[in-house]
Specification:
Layout: E1 2-7, H1 12-24, E2 29-40, H2 42-57, E3 61-65, H3 69-78, H4 80-84, E4 95-96
Parallel strand pairs: 1-2, 2-3, 2-4
Helix pairs in contact: 1-2
Length: about 100
């Protein structure tokens, strides 16, 4: 799945709902592409953290893909960057989009 633009208090609920739908599906891995995100506030970080907890409980691997240092820094400060192990999709795995 892909997020774009600003992920803030107005758009984060939509991201959270899309993440919840992806985790509820039958994918073994969910990749969230944040490369087109220009701003990620605390509500967006919270949506990712909550999705991570739900994915872990469902034994689904949630990962983010990001190329912007500002986005990565927000996730690093909260400790999520290491948990979400950002990077390319794993070959041969199911991925929600």
């Amino acid at each position: 799945m892909t997020a774009a633009g600003e992920v803030d208090s107005c758009s984060a609920p939509r991201l959270a709902a899309e993440l919840e739908d992806a985790i509820a599906g039958d994918a073994l891995q969910v990749i969230v592409d944040l490369t087109a995100v220009t701003f990620l506030d605390s509500v967006g970080v919270h949506a990712l953290a909550a999705a991570y907890r739900r994915a872990e409980a469902a034994v689904i691997r949630l990962r983010v893909r990001d190329s912007h240092r500002a986005m990565m820094r927000s996730l690093e400060l909260t400790g999520l960057w290491g948990l979400l192990a950002a990077g390319p999709a794993i070959s041969g795995s199911a991925t929600a989009s």
